[in-house]
Amino acid sequence: MSLAAIETQSQEPVKNGRKSASEVPDTRFDRRLADVLTHASRIFWEKGYEGASMRDLSRATGMSLAGLYHYFESKEELLYLIQKHTFTTIIERLRQRLEDATDPEERIRIFIHNHLEYFLANKEAMKVLTHEDETLKNGRGAEIAAIKRDYYRICLGLLEELGRAQGLQFSGRLAVLSLFGMVNWIYTWHNPRIDADANSLARQMGDLFLHGVIHAAKPKRKNSKRKL
Question: For the whole model, what pTM was predicted?
Answer without folding.
Answer: 0.80
